Amino acid sequence: MARNVDALYIFLLIVTGMMTLLVFSFLLYFAARYRHRPGVRAEQIEGSTPLEITWSTIPFLVFMVIFAWGALVYFKERTPPADATEVYVVAKQWMWKLEHAEGQREINELHVPVGRDVKLIMTSQDVIHSFYIPAFRMKQDVLPGRYTVEWFRATKPGVYHLFCAEYCGTQHSGMVGDIVVQEPAQYEAWMNGGSTGPLSATGEKIFAELGCVTCHRGDAQGRGPNLQGVFGKPVQLEDGRTVTADENYLRECILDPGAKRVKGFQPIMPTFQGLVTEEQVNALVAYIKSIAPAKPGEAARTSASSARPAAANVQNVQDVLNKGSQVQ
Amino acid sequence: MEIAIPQPLERENYLNKKYGVWSWLLTTDHKRIALLYLISITFFFFIGGFFALLIRLELLTPAGDLVQADTYNKLFTMHGMVMIFFFLIPSIPAVLGNFLVPMMIGAKDLAFPRINLLSWYLYIIGGVMMLHCMLTGGVDTGWTFYAPFSTNFSNTKVVEAGLAIFIAGFSSILTGLNFVVTIHRMRAPGMTWSRLPLFIWAHYATSIIQLLGTPVLAVTIVMVAAERTLHLGIFDPKLGGDPILFQHLFWFYSHPAVYIMILPSMGVITEIIACFSRKRIFGYSFVAFSSIAIAVFGFLVWAHHMFVAGTSVYAALVFSLLSYAVAVPSAIKVFNWTATLYKGSIHYDAPMLYAFGFLGLFTIGGLTGLFLAALGIDVHVTDTYFVVAHFHYIMVGGAVMGYLGGMHFWWPKISGRLYPEGWARLAALIVFIGFNLTFFPQFLLGYMGMPRRYYDYSHMPEFQVLNVLSTAGATVLGVGYLLPMVYFLWSMRYGKPAPDNPWNAAGLEWMTSSPPTTFNFEEEPVVTWEAYNYEELDAPRTEEVPIAQ
Amino acid sequence: MPNSTLVGLHHEEQNRPELLHHFADPEQQRDASSLGMWVFLATEVMFFGGLFCAYLIYRHWYFGDFAAASKSINMALGATNTAVLICSSLTVVLAVWAAQTARRTLLLISLAATMLLGATFLGIKGIEYRDKFVEHHLPGASFSFDHEEIPGHPGQYASPAHAQIFFSLYFVMTGLHALHMIIGLGIFLWLLLMAWKGRFTSEYNTPIEIGGLYWHFVDIVWIYLFPLLYLIDRHK
Questions:
Q1: Any idea what the CATH number is for the domain that residue B430 is in?
Q2: Total number of domains in chain B
């Protein structure tokens, strides 16, 4: 990703460099050549429409090329791959709190394995911040009240700067950290260094503790919609609109249930605003994302209780974690 | 340059017509009001400059060791607010515009002289409020005062600063109103639109922006003040509000505002280049309409300040495209200015040196705008020193250079005195060098990743070298700015008396005395010639007095 | 150099003391004043425009809540105020016509009537504001909007937070409008005094004309405010 940005940057340096050279050469040449000489008068030239059209059109076309290239790069930057590893980020004055889907918590540091797509799902507890990794040429504002998303794939192990890039008060300059990119084996070792279990498992616990499961059952008889497999699907609302059940929608339903009520259900869900922290909302969202619909005759499975063949690493980690917790 | 015989200074003019403080404070003469503004904005320029100096001193070392974090945050906030609202926005329109617009179109005064004086008083009231705010604690939200930090979290005097800007905004609106009505209704007979100096076209376009954009900022400030004092929830997500709405409303004014700051400067440069090349501007209609195009398109690109704010990808695409469109008229101007030099007869007096400086720095600043409009690059460099460098190249390298060039060009007319040419050329050179040394390293810092508004970069000591270069440049720049203040003041007492038209320049303002009388023209001029009639002005002298003298 | 133009000007000024020195003739002065007021009104459109923009966005997002909040403000009083303002625009037009046709009595009566109607508007507005205060619909610490049904959706209740946004915008928008009314009253008081002193003739009545323009503008803003704020889903 950074390479693409740099390529565009170099292209721009060349184009603007050439334009600068062109303009400056003419300026300096004319300034010298047409210096006032006694007895020589200026020649009054009204203008030249063909020239005006030419030097308007050519730059415009060049600009369009730059626009298109920039737009392509941007589009890729803002479209995270579907199977990216997720990390939840909560920004607050003046620190970054991160939680991996597997459960590891970090403050002002983010460990990632090299070569893996990582998607950051971010929100703020207070004011607007911005998650900026110069080395990856990536930046995204982090807003209170909703999620914003950013993704990257680190290509070289190392430690890279993390900055807050949206002024947020007294210690704005102190809201810095490190992105630690590790070889896969090192990353595994780091991950095994203790966690509280996958984020979705935490979410499952909260889901039960807060009583969500009483209305949101795994069948169609609940007083609330069945949430299995709902993530990413279109949802029909009471007022006729259809929205996609993304992270922001799930979060909104927890904190402001009346805003986008699902069609066919009564408006009886209470709001949990003030009763859950941002981290707990993140855990709930992670849980809901993980529950797949039940096959006939089976109970619904969650990522915490089932094996996911595609994520072999995660399964190994689960075994190790389970063993680890038994030992302790 | 031919210099006519200077007139004795005892002739009555707008400066010596009446003496006494009240004759100034209650004047309705547009020229005196221009000087009132000149004194006020120079005062605020040095205040803003002082804050800049402190900022650059702090950034000499990676650690935050000169001032505390909160103090630094107030410094950059107030540097921005003072420089933008109390220096740049008024500068050329309120000083040179007020002085010259009536004269250039052959009028005795602006359409509404008393409203002109009211404009100045509003500016002063706003300025005094701002001073009071700064002296009693200051404000630390950044000049952009984003919600929810400004509405719910900052403990500083946000409402007071906002009110100061609100009041100063009305000064800006009324100046724009005066110019638009004056240009429409008070042109002398024969002064058709196509005979207007391009300085007037530029100020007309600027006035349109001031009129239509500033009220949106005003109402945004009202909403922020209301939210802060009454705990409403318009921008507070916890109450269902949206902080992004603030950004849209804010930038809807603040982007066109940058065109308020640069268009007048472009008008000045056009006049200077024509005069010191002794030629009509190449492509008059294109330059005139490009000013209008910039004003119109300038209203359509505001969200290019919000590419990483969390707006939709499609909105970003539209605004990026439009931002490239708005770059075209500026490019057209640069090419036309350059083409004007072709087959000209170029003189290198100080105003022309400032014009050359403008051409170089504005070109660089404008081209770096292309980087920022490219979505893929903006994600990396927005909110870094790259943006800081870009806008300083335009606003300081562009607008301030134009302002200084214009002050030198019209100083003989304004004061009746000549400034010392040698010192003026030296100052232009010092400003040019100091400016580049200050701000070019910041492009590099930005691409390397140094964020804006950081007072402590001890985690990134690799940024220090470029910061030191930048601070060194700032001290040079400061000297460059002090020089004109000193020698302009000196010239008011000891400068050579100026002839009516020391540059033999075209334009109705040069047909008045230096300094002009209170009502500018003894008789209303009747215009029968095109603008920039340098052919006639430079025609070999015969026994008769040439027509346009 | 002979100053025939200047001498001529003094002659003009003696005949027409209201001709300001920097204008060439009364037509230019009138044109300039008129254009000036139109341009100023354009800035006022932009000023209110920012608020209307915010209002429209939130109304789109929280339509139901806004409908519930709208139901709680007094439509009868709002409609009365609309009628009051429309009548006041009529009296303004009468005043301008009276000035143009040198009907001094009618001019004075029309100006006074306009002011009376304007004051009535403000009085009714004051009653509305007091009602809102009593019902705890003033945004802030004591705001409460519980158990208000969304029109057309029985059993569904409006979100107090979103309703508070409605009321925030309601007070800021109508408050700003009321401020402009008060300024308008001040302007018309001055016009009344000048008319009383006989300053206006059929040739010189520009202040009445441009004062009238300002009043019409304030009226038009209300014509937009009333349906947007008071009439959301009233048929439900």
A1: 1.20.210.10
A2: 1
Name the residue among B219, B234, B238 with its Cβ closest to that of C168.
B234
Measured between beta carbons, the chain C residues lying within 8 angstroms of B107 are 22
Per-residue pLDDT reduced to its tens digit, A140-152: 999 999 999 999 9
Number of domains chain A is built from: 3
Q: Does residue A180 fall inside a structural domain?
A: yes
| pLDDT tens-digit readout, B86-133 | 999 999 999 999 999 999 999 999 999 999 999 999 999 999 999 999
For residue A167, give every residue at least 6 positions away whose Cβ sits within 8 Å of its Cβ, in sequence order, or none.
Answer: B73, B141, B142, B146, B149, B452, B453
Answer whether A67 sits within 8 Å of B374, measured CB to CB.
yes
- Mark whether A115 and A205 lie in a shared domain: no
- Divide the 549 residues of chain B into consecutive groups of 10 and give the mean pLDDT of each group: 53 87 94 97 96 96 91 96 97 97 96 96 97 95 95 94 97 97 95 96 97 96 92 87 95 96 97 96 96 96 96 95 96 96 95 96 96 96 97 96 97 96 96 96 96 93 95 96 96 93 95 92 91 89 54
CATH of domain C26-230: 1.20.120.80
The answer to whether the CB atoms of A256 and C159 lie below 8 A apart is yes
Name which of A238, A239, A258 is nearest C159 (Cβ-Cβ). A258
Give which of B211, B231, B47, B71 is closest to B130, Cα–Cα.
Answer: B47
Residue A74 shares a structural domain with residue A94: no
Q: Is residue B448 part of a domain?
A: yes
Question: How confident is the model over A235-274, as pLDDT tens digits?
Answer: 998 878 889 998 989 998 998 887 788 888 888 888 888 8
Q: Are strands C153-157 and C149-150 parallel, antiparallel or unpaired?
A: antiparallel
- With contacts defined as CB-CB under 8 Å, which chain A residues touch C157? 258, 267
The complex's ipTM works out to 0.91
| Contact residues on chain C for A256, CB-CB shorter than 8 A | 159, 161
Residues A66 and A155 occupy one common structural domain: no
Who among C62, C155, C162 is closest to A267 (CB)? C155
The pTM for the full model equals 0.89
| Residue of C58, C60, C66, C153 to mutate, interface with A, max A Cβ within 10 Å | C153
Closest CA to B205 of B68, B112, B298: B298
Per residue, the 3-state secondary structure of B344-410, as one string, reads CCECCCHHHHHHHHHHHHHHHHHHHHHHHHCHHHHHHHCCEHHHHHHHHHHHHHHHHHHHHHHHHHH
Domain ranges of chain C: 26-230
Chains A and B form CB pairs within 8 A to the count of: 259
Quote the domain boundaries for residue A57: 1-18+50-79
Does the distance separating the beta carbons of A256 and C62 come in below 8 Å?
Answer: no
- CB B226 to CB C43 under 8 A? no
Mapped onto helix, strand or coil, the DSSP state of residue B271 is helix
Nearest to C32 among B181, B232, B245 (CB): B181
In-domain check, residue A23: no
Do residues A112 and A160 both lie within one domain?
A: yes
In a domain, A45, yes or no: no
Domain presence at residue B85: yes
CATH code where residue A285 lies? 1.10.760.10
pLDDT tens across B325-372, in order?
999 999 999 999 999 999 999 999 999 999 999 999 999 999 999 999
A313 and A287 assigned to the same domain: yes
Domain-embedded: residue B1: no
Q: Any residues with CB less than 8 A from the CB of B149 and at least 6 apart, and which?
A: A127, A128, A167, A168, A169, B141
Min distance C95 CA to chain B CA atoms (Å) = 25
